[in-house]
Amino acid sequence: MQWFAVGARAILGKWVRRRSAGAGALALLGVLGVCAMGNAAAQSAASPAQATASESFWTRDTLTGDWGGLRTALGDKGTDITLDYVGEGFNVISGGLHRQGSYEGRFEFSVDSDLGKAIGWRGATAHVTVFNIHNGGRNVAQNVGSIADPSNIDALSTTRLYTAWLEQSLWDGRLSIRAGQLAADDEFFTSPTAGNLINGTFGWAGLMSANMTSGGPAYPLATPGLRFKVQPSEQFAVLAAVFNGDPAGRNCEDDAQQCDRHGTKFPLGQGALWMGELQYGVNQSEDAPGKPGIYKLGAWYSSSRYDDLRYGLDSDDAVVSVSDQTLDRPLAHKGSWGVYGVADQTLWKGETSSLSVFLRGGFTPSNRNLVSFYANGGVGIKGLVAGRPNDQLTLGVAYAKISRDAVAADRDAGLFGGDPYAVRRDEIVYELNYTAQITPWWTLQPDLQYIVRPNGGQNPDNPGTSLNHAFVVGLRTTIKF
């Protein structure tokens, strides 16, 4: 283990020195912490009492086990390592843009360090996540053409630094401050029950992904930020955060992911995205006797420039339609905002089974946002099949309303001498998913999705034609190494 620690320090040191921004060092702090603890972990790993070799291959928590006691030793020193692989195949069997199959995979390497145990820094933790993302050249989103991405791991094929942050907890956990490269979808607008679904809209919903600059600070684009959490009691918490306004960085004229292909750009100076959320949770601990529930009310404000969806200016600064041939430049708005709410409640709880429901929704200004109203909801049933308490069946429905200004712009297109557009309306996603826990380290998820009017009913490759639906069948496997 000593050679690993020395080598890793040397390699990472060279990497950090090549980066002019101090954020590079912060991004790798969690990895450096692991290296610093390498010797102590290796020394304690030799104890057979800490090894879990006696565990069955099929009952242990991870595929590769305890690494001869090394994982336990690292945990005793405050460090947890995550090695996960998610692979999935989808096939568009009806509708959509292309009726064909696709494969995507993502390997995750994460390190979480309790710096109190590691170096005596009380109340401090460090985290870093790196993804390797790959697909066969065409992903399911490109085959479907919808606003809601059918896969929540869909991303540009690359190796990417995702999140990297330090967190300081104060006053017995009543206040925590997190700084570094952050992802808003880790903490904001989340729902435990909705999180079992595969379509990305049940995570970072279309209310954000379709409206925020470059999709907002969410998978796969994290961005520099600062987050505060105040928790005066077990039931109440307040989240407040500010993120860099554009995760893609300055002067990005390409796909946002291409502009920060490896997640090492650490952009600053593109305005700010402010988010706040009030949370009320009941029976959140694992041993709580009652039915767990979480309720949230949140809002966001972006200081970025937003172009009007229907109107622009001609050379004389007169307001004209964006479809008018006299259009000189877009009519710009300073900033945008949104308001949202979340409810996730367990309605029934048995000895090995439960039934939960969720509802999320919100709205934004119509003149500068593609999706002006959004809502999703559904139900999750755990332990539906006798003898399989860890399996879960989840059904979700999501509705995204295309803003009236975007709809009006579609209608205007044929009135000003241009090619007529198919008029958008809304997009509805239905998803049925079953998570089968084969072993503690392996799950399989067969998945069905039916999307009504992908992209609001307008073909994104040819706006003059319409899209009626897309029927998608998929299977995902997740392995914890």
Give a short synopsis of this structure.
This protein has ten helices and 17 strands. The chain is mostly beta strands and 481 residues long.
Account of the protein in words:
The protein has about 475 residues and is mainly beta. It has a single domain, classed as Carbohydrate-selective porin OprB (Porin). The chain contains ten helices and 17 strands.
How are the SSEs placed, and which strands pair?
Blueprint: H1 2-17, H2 23-27, H3 29-36, H4 38-45, H5 70-76, E1 79-95, E2 101-114, H6 115-119, E3 124-135, H7 140-144, E4 158-170, E5 175-182, H8 206-209, E6 223-230, E7 236-244, H9 256-259, E8 272-282, E9 293-313, E10 319-321, E11 329-349, E12 354-363, E13 371-382, E14 392-402, H10 404-413, E15 426-439, E16 442-452, E17 469-480
Antiparallel strand pairs: 1-2, 1-17, 2-3, 3-4, 4-5, 5-6, 6-7, 7-8, 8-9, 9-10, 9-11, 11-12, 12-13, 13-14, 14-15, 15-16, 16-17
Helix pairs in contact: 1-3, 4-5
